[in-house]
User: Fold this.
Amino acid sequence: MVSAASSSTIGSTGRPPRVAVIGGGHNGLTAAAYLARAGVDVTLLERLPHVGGAAVSTDGFAGLDARVSRYSYLVSLLPAQIIRDLGLDVQLARRRYSSYTPMPDALRPDSASSSRRPGLLVDAGDEAATRASFAAIGAAGDADGFAAFADRTTRLAAALFPTLTQPLPTAAAARAAAGGASAWSEIVDAPISDAIERAVHHDLVRGVIATDALIGTFAALDDPGLEQNRCLLYHVIGGGTGDWDVPIGGMGRVSGGLEAAARAAGASIITGVTVTRVTPDGEVTWQERVGGLPFGSPGLPSGTELTAAFDLVLSAVAPHVLAELLGDEAPATQRPEGAQVKVNMLLRRLPRLRDDVAPEAAFGGTFHSNEAYSQLEAAHATASAGGIPDPLPCEIYCHSLTDPTILGDELRASGAHTLTVFGLHTPDRLLTGEDDDRMRDELERAVLASLDSVLGEPIEPLLLEGAGIAGGRAIETKTTRDIEEALAMPGGNIFHGPLSWPWLEAEPQGPAAAWGVETAHPRVLLAGSGARRGGAVSGIGGHNAAHAALELLADRL
Assistant:
């Protein structure tokens, strides 16, 4: 073992404070950039050969010029404040359409007599067209209730979103700021099923609202634990409006901009290393890669173990991973569980619909497949019993419609498009580790079958082909196990663990608690999606950990 630095205390003087950031995802990069800009000596340690974590773009299909956001997809919670503070070259594009949801055959009494399938198109730019679409599916009476629920959640978003980059408010203060005209009581006080069933009555319309409560979360809509409510809250408060935007150039532009900001500020970013231990007093041990090592120790062989002492350690990895590094006793019941399967595709053109709606409009927002309210409830019951839901509820996004730059000139001119699909209610418990390849294939087939059941033509013949692509077709499927293996997210949980309300019941004690980043160890802070206001591509966990750290280190700066 090589000692890379000697131990010190936060109160010592004579050198800049030293902080370790464990994990180089977008949150770790955010924390590193803020700290380095404030004069902190920052060392970021990342297991992968590159930074960015889940927020990266890849050439996923060999021989085809397309930059795919492999794991994450859209941006809602990334505050403009972080973009401004760090000078990020990140442009977010608003989608014209909110969503399109075809009517499942099970809800159509005339399904045997007609091939036409009406769907609900929510057009953010045309209220009259949206109302006409409600009428077309037999839900004209729900148009007002749907709009009113959206208005109440927007009021809540406007009140809560600015607080996500401030010290935590108390629940009483947050509720007062939200006001009585917001959706506070509907989301906070009872299972979200109650509010949805009061607001609208059509099965399909209820499902459109309910999906925001379930993406990445395995819960029933009437679960008294309210995990589904917290999931919905984070889906509707982004930007103060709830809009989900497309990062121009792909998700890699977000993490790439954060990396550039951190490096420009002087942060030391070390990739390809494995952190093996963290102590409560700030000591970190890792195994080095071949080549240039930090702290002036070049030339040591690969696998050399290095230990350094830091004034603070900011953990941008999942809390369950941090507990293992600290040697904490972490019961198996606390292990997070993800509940999604992600499928990326590259098509030679968009598929035809069984509706008069143009594919460019239907796929211009979020395309819902088999996500009626009753279907979501049935899918949860099936998965709880150990089966793959049939049909599988899915959400589909076409990034290339909003951002054609992710495609090369030839693909763009040919009419090709990307599709990203999130299958819901596919919990990690369905994968046993014994036959995960077979399960991946089954989940992929379930996704394709779900899409085929609502489209005007099968989707598989539309997949682009290439000799260099695994399997020959431009499709890749990522299960919860794939996500855990690739990104060290336990159970494939994209939020790093259960989401928390973005407030406290009582006044906090100390900077770490005030910013929602505390652990049981004063020198170790949470800086990732597992922090109190983490989840999604936001940078909020990193921002808040950095601000808590700067308060703790104030007398050294």
In short: The radius of gyration is 24 Å. Confidence is low (pLDDT under 50) at residues 1-9, 290-298. DSSP finds 19 helices and 20 strands in the chain.
